[in-house]
Amino acid sequence: MKVLIAGGSGFLGTSLKGSLAKDGHEVFILTRRVSKERNKIQWNGRTAEGWGHLVNDMDAVVNLTGYGLEHWPWTKRQKQKFVDSRVLPGRALASAIQHAERRPRVFLQTSGVNFYGLHGEELADESTPPGKDFLAQLTVGAEDATKPVEEFGLRRVIVRNAVVLARNGGLFPLFTLAPRLFFGGKFGEGRQAMPWIHITDHINAMRFLLENENAHGPYNLISPQPTSNAEFMRAVTRALRRPYWFHIPKFLLRFVLGEMSVLLTEGRYSQPKRLIELGFRFQFGTLDEAMENLLIRTISATSGM
């Protein structure tokens, strides 16, 4: 299978590329960076100029584009960059597919579980309507940008990501930094949802959805174990053998981070209902299993050197 990954030079794209290549699939990367590698093609993320013809040879297209929400501060200009970095590349990909002589079979669009909003009484699943806050509408815009590919006959899959946990890369090293320095504790009240998924399950789920002809529409890529921020941080400190005591109040996070603080202090609980119904099985379905793999085994291996 030939796969084109837009935004594939980042943390998730590199992991997905490695998994696909290991099994003999040919992977091409659309990147803004200049590269001499044959399988890395430069684009501007806004048009199909110079690369659109590649779509004719692809079996699948994956859209991982999006400027990271961890970039601070969330000024008006910064928030517009979040929007443009998701909507404009999506439209460019849809345009390339529209004008292709031979179209791919499947299109995988990444989004986020923030789709469901920051608050809600019920456990959200893929049938839950979107929220009205900035983060929710950001995911709506990203998903809508590539919706036209369905009209062109492609099977479109939307993956709504939780925070992807990996030893190196992504946000997990930042979550473990304070506990490693003996300042581990909850953020805000600690009752808010902490959506997470192990990197192994995330990559396996994306491949599962790419290759399963029955997969279409939205899927939550999140652990089946609902986890609060307090539970998550307590598990981190326990795995690292550090104290759980230095809790950061909500007002302080708001004062330092501004609107960006909602990433730490707010969150709605979600579940991977459709993914499980389709037959996917998690390798790291519980927090203890994930921490055992990501932290405890790493510590044991280092101690044994």
Structure description:
This protein has 305 residues and is of the alpha/beta class. The chain has one domain (2-303): NAD(P)-binding Rossmann-like Domain (Rossmann fold, 3-Layer(aba) Sandwich), CATH 3.40.50. The protein has helices at 11-22, 76-98, 134-145, 172-180, 199-211, 229-240, 250-257, 262-265, 273-277, 287-303, and strands spanning 2-6, 26-31, 40-42, 60-63, 106-112, 155-161, 163-165, 196-198, 217-221. A 7-stranded parallel β-sheet has the order 3-2-1-4-5-6-9, with helices on both faces. A two-stranded parallel ribbon has the order 7-8. Helix 1 (11-22) links the parallel strand 1 and strand 2. The protein is globular. The model has no long low-confidence stretch (mean pLDDT 95).
SSE map:
Layout lengths: L1 E5 L4 H12 L3 E6 L8 E3 L17 E4 L12 H23 L7 E7 L21 H12 L9 E7 L1 E3 L6 H9 L15 E3 H13 L5 E5 L7 H12 L9 H8 L4 H4 L7 H5 L9 H17 L2
Helix pairs in contact: 1-5, 2-3, 4-6, 6-10
